[in-house]
Amino acid sequence: MGCLYSFPAMTSGFQDSAVPEEPLLILEYGEAYRNLTEVKMSHVVLPCHANQCNELSIGQLLKWMDTTACLAAEKHAGSPCITASVDDIHFEHTISVGQVVNIITKVNRAFNSSMEVGILVSCEDLYSGSTWRVCKAFATFVARPTDSGKVQLKPLVPRTQEEQMEYSIAAERRRMRLVHADNMKDLLSNGAIRRDSICQEFKDSVPAEKTRVESVELVLPPHANHQGNTFGGQIMAWMENVATIAASRLCNAHPTLRTIDMFHFRGPSQVGDRLVLKAIVNNSFKNSMEVGVCAEAYQCGEPQRHINSAFMNFVVLDGDGQPRVLPRIKPEPVNGKRRYLEANARKKIRLDRKYIFSCNQTEVPLSVPWDPSNRVYLSLNNVSALKILAAKRDWVLQYERNKVTLYALEEDQFLSFKVEMMVEMVAEKVFVLLSDLSRRHEWDQHYQKCDLICQVDEDDMIYHVVTPSVVKDSKFQDFVLLASRRRPCDKGDPYVIALRSVTLPTHSATKDYTRGEVLSAGFTIWEESDTVTKVSYYNQATPGVLPYISRDIAGLSSSFCTTFTSCRKFLEENNKDSTPAPASEL
Q1: Cβ proximity of 467 and 446 under 8 Å
Q2: Cα–Cα nearest to 420, from 435, 401, 448, 394
Q3: Is 198 a residue whose pLDDT tops 60?
Q4: For every residue of 161-200, which 3-state class applies, written as one string?
Q5: 7 within 8 A of 260, measured Cβ to Cβ
Q6: Which of 305-309, 411-415, 475-479 has the lowest mean pLDDT?
Q7: How far apart are CA 431 and CA 524, in angstroms?
Q8: What's the confidence (pLDDT) of residue 541?
Q9: Of the N and C termini of the chain, which has fewer Cβ atoms inside 10 Å?
Q10: Crossing angle for the helix pair 427-435 and 559-573, nearest 10 degrees?
Q11: DSSP secondary structure of 347-411
Q12: Mean pLDDT within 98-105
């Protein structure tokens, strides 16, 4: 029962190297800095921690991860904290007996009474000296109320570029957690998941009832945390145990855990509770299966309380380490069919998310197909990519004219640029005006036409943009852009308008235009005071965009200065006419 897992690239809570940097850093102005919420834990894997394959039990790993993350949360909160949820986990490698598990956790962002904690797990071989990453995860912890009432967490102040990036993206991940259930409902109701698939009869299919597991655990003092509640890591370990048994009953072999789709704690459990753990295979695909597992608690004479639920995905590896073909599952009537379809929806979400977040940015096409079923993750990726770009700190000043500054940043195969200016008007009015791309041609000569194709929802729109070519007698370029906008999550956050290319079957490339692509672009709008706003425009230049800016960066032109001077004039002229739209309209 091994385990292999990783979160999409845009969610990197730490450096990509397997061994995290030492927490003591020297900031660019010479100050020594240590992240005060950071906690490290290291364990040698002993036989008592291992499963039948002589590998670290994932249940044991989950216990260590939860403990380390809780200590980081409590360092920031200054009070006891409880686990609210753990985001999806993807296990990349197994860990063998004798190897060392290194876990590092730190608080990425604090909200009102909850906070996100980033978790990085790496493995170390003491004999070879090599290290590698095992998994990354993000957990949400809630500070427990005290005698004086609900705890109001102090804000977290990011100091390094990496911390600023994680702080910013944490708001997007929180947004995704809140809409996850609605996204599932949309997938099941809009026809994206075929319902006729459950009517097919597969040869040698296994009745789902055969995989059902039910087990009870009596919660004893050793299972409790330092607050007297059942340790969240212990509950997750028990859940992993019954899920593994259910998976084994389908394949009659030792399964390997690949991914876990979010642990969500719905209530506490205490010493003396009887914890009932239930698991069943919801669906089997060609090389993987999903096991649904839940935990319910009760005490004598009381009804059962729902404590936690999760969905775990297993594979069975052959002698060469490749996934075997699995038998198909025959779902139970009614609830079994519902679970079967929901498993299909979760698989589609995983595949969409993996594709969107793992596209190799050095290869074309840069555009990602858009459809209603992946709109939530495209929007997340769009905004997160812009926030990552905005968090970078090595920008080099190219020129400053008419109070408009142009910066450039060279990284690997990419050249990015940033344009900044100050505007004497309220930030929300700037946000409203710049959010409407159909008016951009009024100040940007590069936008000849911008038509709204689709109003996806209150935050996302798709536009068709036509721009003149900078090369004489060449065809015009066109772009299909997803525009995602966000109001500040908290005081001190910017307004965000993010742009990226998508593909639509209704708007394919034509011979009339040269199809261009935008990898990541958009605005961050910062409230400097009640009457002054800082506007920053970013663009991670692609071959289709680079000709418009290369002469400016080389100092041979000032067209972008002229464009954003026009933008300032446009904003100021429309200041009185623009009234902030209600949140429901944005």
Answers
A1: yes
A2: 401
A3: no
A4: HHHHHHHHHHHHHHHHHHHHHHHHHHHHHCCCCCHHHHHC
A5: no
A6: 411-415
A7: 9
A8: 74
A9: C
A10: 110
A11: HHHHHHHHHHHH--TTSS---EE--GGGHHHHHHHHHHHHHHHHH----EEEEEETTEEEEEEEE
A12: 97
DSSP state of 87: -
Helix crossing, 232-251 with 58-77: angle to 10°? 160
Amino acid identity at 540:
Q
**Which residue in 106, 80, 86 sits closest to 224, CA to CA?**
80
Mean per-residue pLDDT, 74-85 = 93
Measured in degrees and rounded to the nearest 5, phi and psi for residue 283 equal -160, 150
Beta bridge partners of 314: 257, 289
Burial of 4-25, coded b for 16+ CB within 10 Å and e otherwise, reads: bbbbbebbbbbeeebebeeeeb
Which amino acid, residue 294? Answer: C
Calpha distance 54→154 (Å, rounded) = 44
Q: Are strands 477-486 and 449-455 parallel, antiparallel or unpaired?
A: unpaired
Instruction: With beta carbons less than 8 A apart as the criterion, state whether 296 and 307 touch.
Output: yes
Any bridge partners for residue 133, and if so which?
A: 122
Task: Determine the 3-state secondary structure of 252 from DSSP.
Answer: coil
3-state secondary structure of 17: coil
Closest CA to 367 of 519, 521, 515: 519
Whether 172 contacts 128, CB under 8 Å: no
Residue 364: the pLDDT is 39
Residue 420 CA to chain centroid, in angstroms?
28
Phi-psi region of 553 (alpha: psi -120 to 50; beta: other; left: phi over 0): alpha
Rounded CA separation 465/333 (Å): 50
Q: Which residues of 421-451 are buried (b: 16+ CB within 10 A; e: fewer)?
A: bebebbbbbbbbbbbbbeebbebbebbeebe
CA geometry: angle 44, 103, 57, nearest 5 deg: 55
CA R_g for the chain = 26
The token pair that represents 308 in the structure block: 């936690």
What is the separation of C-alpha 54 from the centre of its chain, rounded to a whole number of angstroms? 32
Decide if 421 contacts 535 (C-beta within 8 A): yes
DSSP 120-154: EEEEE-TTT--EEEEEEEEEEEEEPPBTTBS--PP
Locate 39 and state its tokens.
């906690």
d(CA 429, CA 335): 50
Closest to 255 (Cα-Cα) out of 340, 356, 324: 324
Separation of alpha carbons 34 and 75, rounded Å = 13
Closest CA to 187 of 177, 178, 198, 179: 179
Contact residues for 3 (Cβ-Cβ < 8 A; gap 6+) = 55, 56, 58, 61, 91, 94, 256, 257, 258
What percent of the chain lies above the pLDDT cut of 70?
84
- Across residues 361-384, what is the average pLDDT? 75
Contact 331, 337 (CB under 8 A): yes
Angle between helices 375-391 and 335-358 (to 10 degrees): 30
